[in-house]
Amino acid sequence: MSQTRVLVLNSGSSSVKYQLLDMGDGSRLAAGLVERIGERTSLVRHTPLAAGGGTRERTGPVADHDAALKAMAEELAADGLGLDSPELAAIGHRVVHGGKRFTEPTVVDDRVLAEIERLIPVAPLHNPANLTGIRTATALRPDLPQVAVFDTAFHTTMPESAARYAIDVKTADEHRIRRYGFHGTSHAYVSRATAELLGKAPEEVNVIVLHLGNGASASAVRGGRCVDTSMGLTPLEGLVMGTRSGDMDPAVIFHLMRVGGMSADEIDTLLNKKSGLVGLCGDNDMREIRRRIDDGDEQAKLAFDIYIHRLKKYIGAYYAVLGRVDAVAFTAGVGENAAAVREAAVAGLEGLGLAVDGERNAVRGGGPRLISPEGARVAVAVVPTDEEMEIAQQTYALVGKNN
Questions:
Q1: Considering 79, 151, 228, 283, which one is annotated as catalytic?
Q2: What percent helix, strand, coil does the chain show, rounded to 5?
Q3: Quick check: is 288 in a domain?
Q4: How many domains is the chain built from?
Q5: Beta-sheet strands, E only, within 64-212
Q6: Is 12 annotated for ligand binding?
Q7: Over the stretch 41-58, which tens digit does the pLDDT of each residue have?
Q8: Is 336 assigned a ligand-binding role in the annotation?
Q9: For residue 233, how far is the Cα from the chain centroid?
Q10: For residue 228, which of 93, 162, 345, 354 is within the disulfide window of CB 3.0 to 4.6 Å?
């Protein structure tokens, strides 16, 4: 029996998301989520996609990630898709930070685990949870390849001129300070899908990808390779996000310490959890912000305008970096669903060949689609991201050839 199935795990600090895919035909067999791990009100949600069944939900305490993955295994087994299936080729894990070392998907061994652990100081919220998911999955299927797919890997093609910060080189190297970038699996998938939408090979296309969700990032992709991205050492840099500030004068931190009397931890919480849209207007849901704007709320309008101003600056900057732009692709929750954001982001950029067609832009849902006018010099597209498929494809490409 051929081994064509890949289980994709995204293990967060208090949740585990999963999908089971068959790479033989590209179908999704099951998907689910275990959230609020460690609480009495943990939720297990499972959908058997291949069988066409409805979503099953149950609540109750899920003590830890070990229990969460066992709950996942039970749900899969109930649909005849258990982890003991001989068709399962590998388990692919999303790992947020791979540093400079991991530039491609990697089969996990003790050396890889140690390196992911060594990177915890630059990804303290994500890498520990990713490690827990890998170790728990390994315990459940020790005979199966565990493959780490790194959010940072797609961005390792950036030239040093884009990746380096202008600080003392010795200090930067000692503490691994540089721009790493994140959302790499999404940027990789969307840049390729955009080229396909244009009927071209990725090597022929220059794309600006705008991944706009609660976390948001931009990338400049030349011929299928990332040459710049907005997130940096951490996911805090760059665009205005749901709760993160994005770009800011670093001296603000010193000012808050010296004048505001705030600790490093308090400032960390401020910039990561109490800034961005929620800091500007109290809401980080773009739908609610747009509703408030329609009702005449000036604070919501200012938050939206700041969000768009930053976004427009990055479009212009990456246009300059690439020299020639074939497409601008919007993706993720806001990018795929907020027509007002897409329209505002390119408004006034007609001189660069950027515009949206009102009717096309208003269409909701569906697959990859162009929203620019017919014959536009630069295509503007909505391209739904699929990070799970990207992880599965990279995992299977690494291990599937041996099955």
A1: 151
A2: 40, 20, 40
A3: yes
A4: 2
A5: 88-95, 106-107, 146-150, 206-212
A6: no
A7: 999 999 998 767 789 999
A8: yes
A9: 15
A10: 162
